[in-house]
Write a structure and sequence with these properties.
The chain is mainly β and 115 residues long. The chain contains no helices and eleven strands. Strands 2, 4, 5, 6, 9, 10 and 11 form a seven-stranded mixed β-sheet that branches. A four-stranded antiparallel β-sheet has the order 1-3-8-7, with no helix packed on it. It is globular, with a radius of gyration of 13 Å.
Length: 115
């Protein structure tokens, strides 16, 4: 079983920055994909960014150029650096990973961006 623990959410003014981190623990042989999703009130959960074990990254159009996803394979952590935040970025952000061919979710962390 793998546990994902997120940290770094909070309240920030528009134009500010936040850094989210997610640490995976448990019996892990390999992590193939790590990602961040978000879910705003009344909306579906959507993909924000992904990174793979081969180093590839992918971003939602709405965050390209503002957010950066990175991973530390030695520590099984994934980080989302969020710059130039906008009120529409307000959501609960969820960490996600595929480890040993199974998918896992974190508990979510709130990010609130005030105008």
């Amino acid at each position: 079983q793998v546990q994902l623990v997120e940290s770094g959410g909070g309240l920030v003014q528009a134009g500010g920055s936040l850094r989210l981190s997610c640490a995976a623990s448990g019996s892990i042989f390999s992590i193939d994909v790590q990602a961040w999703f978000r879910q705003a009130p009344g909306k579906q959960r959507t993909l924000v960014a992904t990174t793979t074990s081969s180093g590839g990254t992918n971003y939602a159009d709405s965050v390209k150029g503002r957010f950066t996803i990175s991973r530390d394979g030695t520590k099984n952590t994934v980080t989302l650096q969020m710059n130039s935040l906008r009120p529409e970025d307000t959501a609960v952000y969820y960490c996600y990973c595929v480890a040993d061919r199974r998918a896992y979710w974190g508990q979510g962390t709130q990010v609130t961006v005030s105008p």
